[in-house]
Amino acid sequence: MIKQQKEKALGLYIILLAMFITSLIVCNMITTKFIEVDLYFKTFILPAGILPYPITFLVTDLLSEIYGRRKANLAVLSGFVALAFTILIVFLGQQFNAIEDSIVSDEVYNMVFGNSTRAIVASMIAYLVAQFVDVRLYHFWKKLTNGKHLWLRNNASTILSQLLDSVLVITVLFYGDKDFSVLSVWILNAWLFKVICALFDTPILYALVYWLRNVFSIKENEELEL
Fold it and tell me: Please, which residues have CB within 8 angstroms of residue 76's CB and are 6 or more apart in sequence?
């Protein structure tokens, strides 16, 4: 790969990594707000943080396809570090009292950002497990089909990893506080919404992969080296 093309590939990787990390952090920042999403056939009641979360799986699938498994796993680890660092910064903000004229009071700050330890643990466990499973399954299906059927590895990996994410988050957060019947409905509701998002992002992934293969002149099953 010529130097100019390698610099372009690195620049794109950094942009995708920034999108991945931003989506991940925003997920945790807005997750305490619950919203209704009406898809005509069903109205979903979901935490707002679930909206940008499917972007993280689209990005890891794109990284897996273009840059390979190691670079996709590096993005997952980078996201975990960024999430942990964000939590640390929020914690530091809680250690200082707001001044009298502060627009945001201590009560509001703690209500919005003061996630419990249990919520933080649930989020981070689910994130690591789901993202690594997504990358691993993506390459399993890619190898099994000899690089064919992009739609299969995109959806098969994401659908299962999103199920794991939904089960882990809701179970760790609410086990012991809610009946299993309630938890199962919440899990199914969150997972179904994520599955719909995964199906809709498939043509986006196809378009991006097609475009990037043309930009970098790489063949099917070929990956960019940084």
Answer: 60, 128, 131, 132, 135
Overall number of domains in the chain: 1
Residue 82 sits in a domain of what CATH number? 1.10.1760
Residue type at position 196? I
Q: Can you tell me the distance from the alpha carbon of 171 to that of 187, in angstroms, rounded to the nearest whole number?
A: 9
**Pairing state between β 34-38 and 43-47:** antiparallel
**Domain span at 131:** 3-216
pLDDT tens for the chain, residues 1 to 226: 577 888 889 999 999 999 999 998 888 778 777 788 888 888 888 878 788 888 888 898 899 899 998 998 999 899 889 888 888 888 888 889 999 889 988 888 887 776 555 566 677 777 788 878 888 888 888 888 888 888 888 888 888 888 888 888 778 777 777 788 888 888 888 888 888 888 888 899 999 999 999 988 888 778 888 7
Cα–Cα distance for residue pair 98/18, rounded to 1 Å: 31
Contact 57, 16 (CB under 8 A): no
d(CA 148, CA 79): 29
- 224 within domain boundaries: no
Q: What is the pTM of this model?
A: 0.84
Read out DSSP for 143-206? HHTTT--HHHHHHHHHHHHHHHHHHHHHHHHHBTTB-HHHHHHHHHHHHHHHHHHHHHHHHHHH
HSE, side-chain direction, 13 A CA sphere, residue 76: 26
Residue 145 lies in a domain: yes
